[in-house]
Specification:
Elements (H helix, E strand, L loop, with lengths): L2 H14 L8 H5 L6 H10 L4 H15 L5 E10 L9 E6 L4 E15 L2 E9 L4 E4 L6 E4 L4 H6 L1
Antiparallel strand pairs: 1-3, 2-3, 3-4, 5-6
Amino acid sequence: MANDKLLDLYSDYLISAFGQTTATGLPALLNGEISHDSVQRFLADEQHTSVDLWRVVKPHVRKIEGPEGVLIVDDSIAEKPYTDENDIICWHYDHSQQRNVKGINFVTSLYHNAGISLPVGFELIAKTEHYTDPKDGKEKRRSPKTRTNTIEK
């Protein structure tokens, strides 16, 4: 199955699911028409970026864009309290809870116009730099990208 077709199927599966989604869920839904292994290979094949998303969604945005359209940017954290810490799953300050939480910090962008919202961008915040906090002497992580230097680009 071509990657574009599998991308369409898997995207539809994620959008329409009411509960947990898994790599085995799509093959089960399609009565084995595609294999679990093909879904696994597709998901592990390559890292997709905002550029890939934009390439897919751009023609749809162009159809609905207009002077009333707005770009909505959201900074969120998906909590993962029981997962081992790494560059992606680590501690982030959650402004809604006024405390640090362990999870995945991601920024998403939607274009909204005429009652339609389309995802146009995303960024996972990876904290790849290790440093010692001078206040408490503990080793911590930080991202080489900040809101300021990301926006300036």
